[in-house]
Amino acid sequence: MFEQLKALPSDPILGLLTQYRNDPQANKVDLGVGVYKDPQGHTPILDCVKIAEQQRTATEDTKVYIGPTGSAQFNQLITELAFGTQHSALLANRIRTISTPGGTGALRVAADFIKRCKPNAVIWVSDPTWANHTGLFEAAGITVKTYPYYDYDTKSLKFEQMLQALSQVSKDDVVLLHACCHNPSGMDLTTEQWDQVIAITTKQGFTPLIDMAYQGFGQGIDEDAYGVRKMAEAVENMILCSSCSKNFGLYRERIGACSILGLNAAQADIAFSVLLYVVRCIYSMPPAHGAAIVETILSDQKLKQQWLDELAIMRNRINGNRQMLVNKLIENGVEQDFSFIANQKGMFSFLGISPEQVAALKQQHSIYMVDSSRISIAGISETNVDYLAKSIATIL
Ligand code: LMR
344 with 271, same domain? Predict the structure, then answer.
């Protein structure tokens, strides 16, 4: 049975975790996987999560199956967080949400759901996009094509080319957009650019799928959801995949959500029944623990405020790291302009160096990043930034 198989390379992002862990160098630097780290290089459990977990442990009274939708309370609260409590689509009962195993689970459910809606739909993703998007949609039998997005030379958006490409997309296709903190480039659409993308979406009639894995990491909860909320006001159908991995620091608990927007409540109900069927055929029902923590936090005003404060600390620290790296590069005599890093948003930016230079940083300096030169900004700290900047200066 297995004799035909050929070994596949390790995942371009997750594979770095093992390489980093096995590196014996004391001064090694991990800029690989997108996880938040504190100044000590540790990924802490948020205090609000600790409190919520204690409360849940004290009150939880069953481990019986939760069902394919997951927790109804979580679904409502996470929908309100994404869309806002007074969103017209919410008030018109056009949105249905399920809990999923992480944002990746939400995307995989969305992929199978799209396949059932339109078996020949093409999904258009930004060039570049998160490395796992392509594999994930292709695994569901969907053709993936790209639209221009990031200009590696000017370190800015190829916005006109993006609009040009989107204005050719068929109404039967799907366009994947990053809500905020574009992974891997850190280049987000401005609100004016969102408005233009939304205008083309309604004109062409294709379905937007918005991936929101970093709500709150860019500028704030509401600011980061601008595109999601505006788009949902304008279109007939939409899919939103969101994640609680980063903003609640619940990475290994695997909690995310998939929301679908119907033309009206009746259509949303029909689509929802298909979504649940898809879930049943993949993993039957989601894990419950992460959702329980999130709903405990979001349903308690004090805990919610504590979470927003902790989220702001993470966001500000990442933004501070951006400027700190740029300053240190200048201090270390780097003449190349890296100021773009300070202006980008979220967990990632491209350094813009060659794969050979990325390999040299890894082999000679124990500095780990994705081959594309995507760096996880959260991995920079006051302790390692000097070494990092010196090493970059050396390989340049
Ligand atoms: C990343 O892009 O590093 C994160 O989203 C983690 C992952 O699963 O790839």
Answer: no
Quote the number of domains for the chain.
2
Rounded distance between C-alpha atoms, residue 131 and residue 110, angstroms:
17
Note whether 104 and 40 are same-domain residues: no
In a domain, 27, yes or no: yes
How far apart CA 92 and CA 232 sit, in angstroms, is 12
Q: State pLDDT tens for residues 179-231.
A: 999 999 999 999 999 999 999 999 999 999 999 999 999 999 999 999 999 99
CA of 184 to the centre of ligand 1 (A): 9
Which residue is closest in CA terms to ligand 1's atom 1? 34
Considering the entire predicted model, what is its pTM? 0.97
Q: Are residues 94 and 230 in the same domain?
A: yes
Name the residue range of residue 314's domain.
15-44+308-395
211 in a structural domain: yes
Distance (Å, rounded) from C-alpha 38 to C-alpha 381? 8
Q: Which of 28, 155, 158, 246 is catalytic?
A: 246
Residue 246 annotated to the active site: yes
Give the active site residue among 124, 130, 194, 307. Answer: 130
Distance CA 47, CA 39 (A): 16
Block residue for tokens 């339109």: 118
Is residue 130 part of the annotated active site? The answer reads yes
| Helical residues (DSSP H) of the chain, grouped into ranges | 15-22, 47-59, 72-83, 88-91, 102-117, 131-139, 159-166, 191-204, 221-224, 226-234, 265-282, 289-298, 301-331, 340-343, 355-365, 385-395
Closest atom, ligand 1, to C-alpha of 376? 3
Active site residue 30: no
- Residue 371's pLDDT band (cuts 50, 70, 90): very high
pLDDT confidence tier of residue 10, bands split at 50, 70 and 90: confident
- Residues 37 and 136 both lie in one domain: no
Do residues 83 and 210 both lie within one domain?
yes
The answer to whether residues 37 and 69 belong to one domain is: no
Using one digit for the tens of pLDDT, what is the confidence trace for 307-357?
A: 999 999 999 999 999 999 999 999 999 999 999 999 999 999 999 999 999
Per-residue pLDDT band for 296 (boundaries 50, 70, 90) equals: very high
